[in-house]
């Protein structure tokens, strides 16, 4: 019964037919504990993927996306821990690659789509002590605030439609991990990211590689990247495809320097 209760809690989101299949296997799990563990892990993975699909569903309003993240805040760190999601570590490593250790304490960094502060934690541990966090979800930012690594919080979406309440040429680095995707940072927001980055500063982000082919980005994002380079706004330092970025999914890391 204990297994059934635990599994029911983990699998509240799955369909009736999926629930029936797990119930039929209960007898086998009673005799084979390793199957019990595997089933719980599989069910947990289904739940996380369902939440990811929810927040990246095409056509959702900004308010709906914010509500989904507010509701996810309590379990977000468990669901996307570093064993599953490598984005924050990879993005932090790229920041270290462009800023020498002796300059990290004074470098002003904006963590864009900061969420609960996974990336901020990584940056802080690597010597970056002057960190700002931007995210539209108040509940996610409350989790980030509890880490005590950020000096300022901005509760906003970044968009191509309006400027952030940030002066031009402010940040040494604007960095994002997991902020790109359907209904999240739009392609046109690259121009706003550039505006708030100082000359000689860096724009860095990591994302799921498959998201480059989402309707919001396909034929748009990389075309804008190339146009911004050709027009002398920035220079591309790196684009790298990363295996096992989120579990078995590939990721992509981008690094640019403002000219």
From TrEMBL:
Domain of life assignment: Eukaryota
Domain Methyltransferase: 109-201
PANTHER family tied to this protein: METHYLTRANSFERASE (PTHR43591), METHYLTRANSFERASE-LIKE PROTEIN 27 (PTHR43591:SF101)
Protein name: Williams-Beuren syndrome chromosomal region 27 protein
